[in-house]
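Postdoc handover notes: sequence design on the structure in folder B. Input tokens:
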């Protein structure tokens, strides 16, 4: 089994804020990119075969967008 690499420090100091921001930004871009791809595929390709599948893909993208915003704004106060 693969184990996640985890860095341990003696002082327990958190990672730099810029690194935490970069990780959150990367997740936001991936999630929003997934939303865009789902919408484009749903209404340009999938709707030709199944309108129901296109609607389901759109609903999933609509739910995924707020999740992306929550991930991007998960601040230092939590």
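Designed sequence:
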């Amino acid at each position: 089994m693969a184990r996640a690499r985890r860095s341990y420090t003696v002082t327990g100091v958190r990672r730099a804020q810029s690194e935490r921001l970069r990780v959150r930004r990367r997740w936001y871009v991936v999630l929003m990119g997934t939303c865009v791809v789902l919408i484009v595929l749903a209404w340009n390709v999938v709707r030709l075969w199944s309108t129901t599948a296109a609607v389901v893909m759109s609903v999933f993208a609509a739910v995924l967008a707020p999740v992306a915003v929550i991930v991007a704004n998960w601040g230092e106060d939590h």
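Context for whoever picks this up: The chain is about 65% helix and 0% strand. Don't rerun without checking with the PI first.
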